[in-house]
């Protein structure tokens, strides 16, 4: 019997943030691939689309008209999943049928008036304005009575459910803390109480020391493929300093956050030379007025593309019924991303 190693043998990896395991099968990625590898037709969009409900000056479905905005623009979602006037109520029948009302506020953030851009094609100062909006909205929404969590996220690409290609993201704020942040909060608290440091402080320090899963870094932020990654090219952006939420970032850290956002997404686009689809979002401390020294904010990226611009990974079979599984190791994915050019392929 050969000696066990992570590069050749099936194994489980623990995500210490959620307490959940994934199955890694590295030997499967060595099998030959005979599937499609062609690039899809590049989607060439105009700078302004008169039919786009997110472009400056255009009318939205509800009759509201967007202002002639020059950088970012925020508005309450016309089709909000959460509403502020939802009445209080609950159902509980024998612990088998339980439900409770949920209220909140949902907003849309237009990143740029340019209909043809995405984050990797924007300049860092413009992306910094997006970060500033995140900070402002986190503070304003989080200060409202009945809002205890603010979830900032971006869906990029139609395969990730993005209904409009105009560069934009969303913020859903809610009365209750959602499931994923709850799990991460509990595990970070347990680690902090045991070690006296945030989990991600120690994790990032170890990752920087090892270097094998680092994609990019600047003075205050790092982008890496987490050891426990589920999606093929999953990544996370983390401040090197323990910061519980975006309001704790310094001016330099906000700019460095924007820079890392661009660096990672440029590498994503360069991987298959296509506008790379993903769902991304910031996990950070709740806004219920309590102190959360254990929380270390981070931004997660979950991209579905596997082998080319047209071959996607889906959660099926064993992954839906048992546990998530991946073939490409986190180390292999990070190496591929790290070695890609820093200049967007459209600018070559």
Model description:
- The protein is α+β, with helices and mostly antiparallel strands and 348 residues long.
- The protein has a single domain (11-28, 40-347), classed as HIT-like (HIT family, subunit A), CATH 3.30.428.10.
- It has six helices and 14 strands.
- It has a nine-stranded antiparallel β-sheet with strand order 3-6-8-7-12-13-11-10-9, with helices on both faces.
- α1 (124-142) crosses α4.
- The longest helix has 22 residues, at 251-272.
- It is globular.
- The relative contact order is 0.17.
Short account of what is shown:
The protein is α+β, with helices and mostly antiparallel strands and 348 residues long. It contains six helices and 14 strands. The chain has helices at 124-142, 179-195, 199-210, 251-272, 318-321, 330-338, and strands at 11-15, 20-24, 73-76, 90-93, 97-100, 104-110, 149-156, 168-174, 214-217, 221-224, 235-239, 278-283, 298-302, 325-326.
Annotation keywords:
single chain, 348 residues, alpha+beta, HIT family, subunit A, 9-stranded antiparallel β-sheet, 3-stranded mixed β-sheet, globular
């Amino acid at each position: 019997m050969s000696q066990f190693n992570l590069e050749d043998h099936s194994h489980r990896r623990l995500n210490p943030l959620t307490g959940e395991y994934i199955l890694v099968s590295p030997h499967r990625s060595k099998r030959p691939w005979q599937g499609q590898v062609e690039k899809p037709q590049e989607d060439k969009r105009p700078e302004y689309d008169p039919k786009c409900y997110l472009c400056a000056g255009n009318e939205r479905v509800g009759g509201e008209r967007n202002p002639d905005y020059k950088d970012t623009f925020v508005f309450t979602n016309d089709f909000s999943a959460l509403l502020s006037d939802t009445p209080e109520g609950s159902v509980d029948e024998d612990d088998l049928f339980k439900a409770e009302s949920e209220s909140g506020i949902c907003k849309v953030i237009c990143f740029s008036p340019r209909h043809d851009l995405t984050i990797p094609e924007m300049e860092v100062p413009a992306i910094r304005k997006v970060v500033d909006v995140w900070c402002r909205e986190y503070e304003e929404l989080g200060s409202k009575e009945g809002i205890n969590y603010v979830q900032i996220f971006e869906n990029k690409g139609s395969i990730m459910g993005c209904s409009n290609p105009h560069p934009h993201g969303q913020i859903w704020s809610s009365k209750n803390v959602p499931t994923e942040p709850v799990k991460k909060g509990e595990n970070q608290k347990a680690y902090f109480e045991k070690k006296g440091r945030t989990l991600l402080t120690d994790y990032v320090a170890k990752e920087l020391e090892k270097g094998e899963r680092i994609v990019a870094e600047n003075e205050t932020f790092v982008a890496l493929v987490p050891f426990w990654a589920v999606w093929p090219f999953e990544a996370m952006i983390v401040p090197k300093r323990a910061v519980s939420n975006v309001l704790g970032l310094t001016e330099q850290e906000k700019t460095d956050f924007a820079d890392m956002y661009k660096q990672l997404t440029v590498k994503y686009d360069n991987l298959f030379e296509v506008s790379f689809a993903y769902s991304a979002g910031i996990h950070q401390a709740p806004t219920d007025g309590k102190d959360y020294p254990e929380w270390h904010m981070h931004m997660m990226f979950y991209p579905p593309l596997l082998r080319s611009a047209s071959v996607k990974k889906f959660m099926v079979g064993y992954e839906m019924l048992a546990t998530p599984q991946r073939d490409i190791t986190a180390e292999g994915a990070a190496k591929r991303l790290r070695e890609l050019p820093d200049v967007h392929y459209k600018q070559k």
